[in-house]
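hey team, just a heads up i'm posting the complex here instead of the shared drive bc the drive is being weird again. everything in one block, sequence lines first with there labels, then the predicted structure for the whole assembly after. its three chains so it's a bit long, scroll down
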Amino acid sequence: MAEFIAYLIAGLATGAIYALAAIGFTLVWQTSQTINFAQGEFVMLPAILILAMVGFLGAPFWLATVLGIALFVLLFGWGFKIVIVDPMIRHGVLPLAIATMALAIIMKEGAKDGFSAEAQNFPSFLPVQTISLGGVSISLQHIAIILVACAAIGGLQWFVTRTKTGRQMQAAAQNPNVALVLGIPVARMVMLTFLINAGLAALASVLISPIYLAKFSNGEVIGLFAFIAAIVGGFNQVRGALAGGLIVGVIDSLAAAYISTSYRLAVPLVLLVIIILVKPEGLFGRKEERRV
Amino acid sequence: MKNVLEVEHIAKHFGGIVAVEDVSFAVREGEILGIIGPNGCGKSTLFNCVLGQLTPSAGRVKLDGQDVTGLTPEEMNKRGVSRTFQLLQVFPELSVRENLILAGQEHKGTMISRLFGARDAGLTAEADRMIGFFRLGHLAEAKAGGLSYGQQKLLDAAMAFMAGPRLVLLDEPAGGVNLTMLGDLKERLRAMNAEAGATFVVIEHNMDFVMSLCTRVLVMAEGKVLAIGSPDEVRANPAVIEAYLGH
Amino acid sequence: MIHSSLLSRLDGVFLTLILGALVLWFVPAGMGRYGTYVLSLWLVTAVAVMGLNLTLGVAGLKSLAQAAFMGIGAYATALLTTKGGMGWLPAFAISGLLTFAIGLLLGFPALRVKAHYLAFVTLAFSTLVWLVLRNEQWLTGGVFGLSNIPRPTLFGLKLDGHLAFHRFVVVATVLLALALWWLIRSPWGRAFLALRENPVRAASLGINIRAYTLLAFAIGSAYAGFAGALYAPLVEFIDPSPFALSASFFLLLMVVAGGSGYQLGPFVGALLGVVLPEWLRFTGGLYLILFAAIVVALLIACPQGMLGLFERFWNAIRRRPMGRNLPLREEQP
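-- predicted structure starts here --
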């Protein structure tokens, strides 16, 4: 039982990180119908950038973190929107989806050739001790990750539902034409979602890299789990992505412990297939009506 | 006279919004029934419920007395119901002739013959007849995307007739078509009605077009049927006058 | 007279395929073993890209499992011809049928909902296949792979030598390309195109969207199976790495680079993706970045890919008033 609780908490921690990536993914999907196949690489890269700042500039870690995240949000929030999405969206969503695959390759190979092919230690900002509570050893890091991720998601939810800008952002996502008529700066709101996506990815990166180490190939698994989380939870909901992330994280953690380490990846995949078969709009999603 | 299509108490809600409310009418064999009404009165939603693009919230649709409620657009088409859309829907990358062959190919032969048989599914002659009928002769080989708007509208309508349908639903066939083309279109549709014996339902905003083309007219307002009758009866109907001139 | 660019393009495709086959039959005579191998690898990759071009370029569906399907074909052929003791031809047929059937099974639930779910289902499938290839050592040899895959003997001809095997690949590629050429010209091809361009309108014309979508995906996947069946005896040793998810991404990029929807596009795309890296070996891993960057640049400037670029260029040279993008309405007979 004690063991089970430890795995559960570990799963919730990684799940909360997947949720961050999944939320960014669904936000971008809602505002611009962009499926970002580089989402996993978006989580992989910030940690590499930060380590590169430490390595090449000799910057202290906290400064490198600030600079690395700022650079990442600039390049892959603002830059991604301006350089990749804007020129391509007029050709339709298919070329754009493929461009994000190309981007994934560029980011991955760039991290490998430009930085390192080896996994690198990534220091944690959070406490790494383990405490024992009634016979159950609990990693403080996991608890802290859950708290930080939930605070970020709660903050986002508050921003989206309680502030004027957040509500404008939602309106721009739901119906851009009506939003334009109402005088909402739709273009700026769409840009905002891309910045938020990059910010969430950077946060996920800083949280997950101390556990998984920073490596160029991390994006594949993280991206896959973020997709699964988004679909399981429901494509059109922030809380859906949160729930999806937690479910996938817990299932992955338990599968690794109790089923098979070599097939741990397969269990969330099976979950995905079941969801698509049984409830394709996701656990928390809304059905979309066929339209002309 | 026989009824081809019977619409009984059709309703459609989107969330809390009622788009179509308890609409019933029948379409008689060989007639041209016009449906008019202000923007947003539910005409296109009604069309989409009848043709399977949307599932009606209540009511039924009968084709030749058979219940066809909830069938998919493909199945409706296979039963001899074809349609055009409000917005232009031709395939711009295909030639005019190819567009017409595409519109007819699923009604001929089998999946196997469509793979191993003739490339045109034996429809070139029929397509060319249709091209001639709609006076697009010089454009048979041209890509549909390169045609003028009016010509594309003609092609769009022609495609609806390729499979020899019993019932054709035309959604704003005259929308955006210039005056000279309009006369052409009306005349072609009337000829099609007389020659092929096809029954039409036409949604249109252009009053003159509807009143001169249709044998009967149905007026919708706020998702409901306001009046139905001959063009003259409808014109004289006080409720219609109220709806159109009242405010 | 207005000429149909579609028709003339298709007949051009036929001629190019036949001519290309003749050239490729004789060209490697003077090339070494390695040069011939690269040429064969180019053609085998082109077969997989061809299938994906049908799925993506013609029918507009995103499949992220083309490399996984190729892996299934390669492992099936390898196992059947080594442990199974079967001839290559039946193994080839089984590889195609197997991938076709899996395509149907996979596509059915995914396409029930929305076309972009196919991307996620195939993404998941791709990872699953890779896991199985890596973990089921008793069957697949795990990370050590399968070796000593025999080269086929067909109709009494031993195709052991690199030149003989290359010519065999040329013939197989041309036959597969011609079959696809036929398919795209048939009413099926027209229906595929219709469901890419406008599925709602296509349905209203009686086109069975679900059946055609499934078929396009399954046939595209079967081509990956065929490519795998050619790949296994070509390399004689297979392991899971070339069939990973990133390889599927790479195949998609080749479709786009060559010219999505163009029938000769796969050959151009595979040329860029397979042959060019051999010439640019000195750049090391940077080649991948270069290739991906080229694709992004192409997608921005000319989403129709290299062949689209070529066509644009060609039209500009000819300066004919009836270029494909000009309106035709002024032309009266």
